[in-house]
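Incident log, support desk, overnight shift.

02:14 A customer reports that sequence design results differ from what the structure should imply. Their input is reproduced verbatim below. On-call engineer (initials T.W.) acknowledged and began investigating.
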């Protein structure tokens, strides 16, 4: 059974991992007709750092088995290991407003909203009237993530210390030519050191080959959905963005 899944047993199994024969080949989404974009979120791929809530057994965000440098899904809390295969689908830039740790922020407690421009973010900061707020230029890479035999929709947010990785990734995609989602890449963790000679984990990207047609078609569908504006990104953050100089890790 998948990690974090719950099986209820009585005289027989009520939950099974594999799709039953009677459901195979059936299409439809009955029971979820009223579910819209505002009722769903696209999760993000994050990195486990030394002080991440994912490693704190007393935190609600704790993930059993989480180790520094691992990648994970911030909604399902699924661990991917130290690398994962992704297909880039869409790129956008947003300005995320954060309250710094010294002013009582940190993690999801510090997140104040995402905005399409710096002007909108600064206007929101003025309206909020709180101390310690900052608008952070954030790259949002919408991707398909390979998790075992499945492909999951997700976002990789890159700001501050991750910004250079985002630019390099965009350059690799541009040099490859064609649709962004025609090729796959390996997203993995690497160790870097800040100005105080402290180590922390960052993303790195390696180019792989072309994707199979079925994956290309699925990515194309997600691309069209994102372009239509019918998506919402998870606003739960385990950790706020940090620069190499101020990283606490």
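02:41 Re-run completed on a clean worker. Output:
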């Amino acid at each position: 059974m998948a990690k974090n899944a719950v099986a209820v047993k009585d005289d027989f199994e009520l939950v099974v991992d594999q799709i039953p024969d009677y459901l195979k080949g059936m299409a439809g989404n009955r029971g979820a007709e009223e579910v819209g974009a505002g009722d769903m979120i696209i999760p993000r791929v994050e990195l486990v750092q030394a002080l991440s809530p994912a490693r704190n057994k007393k935190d609600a965000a704790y993930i059993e088995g989480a180790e520094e440098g691992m990648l994970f899904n911030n909604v399902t809390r699924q661990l991917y290991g130290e690398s994962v295969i992704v297909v880039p689908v869409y790129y956008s830039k947003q300005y995320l407003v954060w309250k710094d740790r010294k002013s009582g922020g940190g993690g999801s407690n510090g997140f104040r909203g995402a905005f399409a421009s710096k002007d909108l973010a600064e206007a929101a900061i003025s309206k909020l009237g709180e101390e310690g707020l900052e608008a952070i230029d954030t790259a949002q890479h919408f991707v398909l993530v390979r998790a075992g035999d499945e492909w999951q929709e997700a976002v990789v947010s890159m700001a501050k210390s991750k910004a250079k990785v985002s630019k390099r990734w965009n350059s690799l995609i541009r040099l490859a030519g064609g649709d962004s989602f025609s090729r796959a890449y390996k997203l993995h963790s690497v160790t870097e050191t800040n100005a105080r000679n402290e180590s922390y984990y960052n993303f790195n990207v390696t180019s792989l080959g072309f994707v199979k047609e079925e994956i290309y078609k699925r990515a194309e569908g997600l691309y069209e959905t994102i372009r239509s504006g019918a998506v919402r990104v998870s606003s739960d953050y385990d950790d706020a963005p940090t620069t190499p100089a101020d990283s606490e890790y």
